[in-house]
Amino acid sequence: FLHAMATLEAVVEIIQEKGEIADSVVLAEQKGWDHEKLVGLIKSLDAAERTKSAPMKREGWKLTAEGEQYSKDGSPEVQVFNVVKAKGGATKEVLDEALGEVGKVGSGVAMKNRWIAMDKATKAFTAAVDAVADEVQKDLQNLANLDKPAIEALKKRKLVAPTSLTAFKVTPTDAFSSAKKAVAEVTQEMIIKGTWKEQTFKPLNFVNASGRRSAGGALHPLMKVRAEIRNVLLHMGFAEMPTNQWVESSFWNFDTLYQPQQHPARDAHDTFFIASPSRAQDLPAGYLDDVKTMHEKGGRGSTGWKYDWSEDESRKNLLRTHTTAVSSRVLHKLATEYRETGNLRVGKFFSIDRVFRNETLDATHLAEFHQVEGFIIDRNLGLGHLIGVLREFFLRIGISGLKFKPAYNPYTEPSMEIFGYHPLLKKTVELGNSGVFRPEMLLPMGLPEDVTVIAWG
């Protein structure tokens, strides 16, 4: 008998008659039932502990929407051939009008199969053979019996897609014949009437009663390295600078560092500029004028860069390209304290936070990365002090055998690149840059001329 819709009674009757359901998919096809509805009924019997079902996962293939269309109407190449043959020849426009997108797809395949040919002078297609067989349509209509190469050919043309289906084998339990449904708990009515004695109860599951053990959180490897370096610097007596201002003005990021406005690093292909708000406000007016003068004319022994410095360029907002912008702000704050009190606060300062560059992403470059930076401000400092601090810092993080090479930076003079031996790569690699901040950077801030700032990053 054929049921229009699967019912629990019908499923129970089949299990009683045959002793099991060998394959739920086959049963659904035989009875004309919706398989998902049948699975729901099987799960209900499992929950009542009347049956046990075992899943059987099956991988297969199904026609895509395009495959369904070609299974019905024929492959694009055969449709194109039929139009060309019927009309005694056809142009691209005629095929587009007759077949639409199918004509564009089919004409190329038909020419590749040498079923049609194109006249180079008229651009018209003509039939090159008398008749063709539509093997693609046959394959689409006989999908279940195709071998792997045929399936792969249809997959390449996106006419078929993988599909996954789970069938179930269902067997009855000892409680299958019992009409009483197992319940989970005792009710007040059962106790009063005494029916709990004949009632079937679901077994209690205490195996996983405590739940799954909660896994604690963990630091990201980058954060571990950051914390380790921070602790090293704190133990060396450095104070941490505030680094939470990722959006910075060109003034603090470049101009205060005595970096000319024509420098390549200030181009859009190296820096992320902010569209909104695009301009910085509240730049310190007096300091801004002193920076402008130093860039244009120099002073106190410097000739400056000798160009027309632009305040508009200086107010452009960007994502900071280095944490030296943080160092510049802190140094300006120390200079302001010195002007107000007459006392210079000497000390050691560091920052460690993310910076942003408009880089081409590859194995060694990201658009966002972390930078460690530090400086020491005091009188009578020189390269010897800088080298000593660097050796001590890198030694504490496990790097020895440092080498230093002269370098150029717009805001340090002299400058040194720092190199160390990498035991895994078995070669010397660059670790950072360092130098003594130039007077052209420090004097506009208002720091005394006999003060030196050594820095690295």
Which labels suit this protein?
457 residues, alpha+beta, BirA Bifunctional Protein, domain 2, 2 domains, seven-stranded mixed sheet, three-stranded antiparallel sheet, 36% helix
Description:
With 457 residues, this protein is an alpha+beta fold. The chain folds into 2 domains: 65-156; 225-456, Bira Bifunctional Protein, Domain 2 (BirA Bifunctional Protein, domain 2). It has 17 helices and 14 strands. It has helices spanning 8-18, 24-31, 35-47, 65-73, 76-87, 92-99, 101-112, 135-141, 148-156, 188-193, 221-235, 250-253, 285-296, 311-314, 324-341, 383-396, 439-442, and strands at 51-63, 90-91, 116-118, 124-127, 160-172, 239-240, 247-249, 317-319, 347-356, 368-379, 403-409, 412-422, 427-437, 451-456. It has a 7-stranded mixed beta sheet, sandwiched between helices. A 3-stranded antiparallel beta sheet has the order 2-4-3. Strand 11 and strand 12 (412-422) form a beta hairpin. The protein starts with 7 loop residues before the first helix and ends with a strand.
